Amino acid sequence: MTDHDHDDADFDPDRSATDDELRAATALARALDRGSFDAVHGSDTLEDGDLRFAALLQYSADEGAIDPARLDAILADVFDEARVRPVAAPVPWWKKILAPTTGFALAATMVAVLFTGPPEGMALPSPNAGLLEAQMSAASGDTAGALQDQMRPYRSELLSALEDQYR
Q1: Which of 34, 75, 99, 131 could form a disulfide with 127 if both were Cys (CB 3.0 to 4.6 A apart)?
Q2: Mean pLDDT on 31-59
Q3: What's this model's pTM, rounded to 2 decimal places?
Q4: Are 149 and 134 contacting, i.e. CB atoms less than 8 angstroms apart?
Q5: d(CA 133, CA 154)
Q6: What is the biggest distance separating any 2 CA atoms in the chain, rounded to whole angstroms?
Q7: Model confidence at 1, in pLDDT bands (50, 70, 90)?
Q8: Can you say whether residue 79 is alpha, beta or left, with left for phi > 0 and alpha for psi between -120 and 50 degrees?
């Protein structure tokens, strides 16, 4: 609402307000509540003189008194706008490097294991006929003494082969 919106000769008190005038009035009411045009939606339709004139009229009518309920609503609105918003913490540099490096190392290990194949097995010494007969008699319930006698030379032969393999 500027000084040149209408002439006194054209003013009709029975005429209803236009959408622009209603938007400007709403913006002016919010600006009066807040005391400035800052962050008031629709404040682009107002001028600084409008706020001063409306504030002067309001102060002359009620000497600047604000209803306690209205004051609480204004404070709640101000605190809501001034509230500190949480900011996501940046990811540390070592986490950015650790994940890809670990993934690459795991992939390289799997490729190495899959393409090299299992380790070659070792040929075990063949048991002699006496050892096999002693195992059959022990399995059928005969005494295990003969099995122990036959196992001693086979065991030493097996341990020698293992020692040769892993030297």
Answers
A1: 131
A2: 64
A3: 0.30
A4: yes
A5: 14
A6: 135
A7: very low
A8: alpha
Question: What separation in angstroms does the CA of 84 have from each of 34, 56, 65, 79, 80?
Answer: 20, 34, 30, 9, 9
pLDDT (tens digit per residue) in 56-99: 676 666 676 777 887 888 888 888 888 888 888 888 888 889 88
- What are the DSSP calls for 64-90, one per residue? T---HHHHHHHHHHHHHHHPPPP-PPP
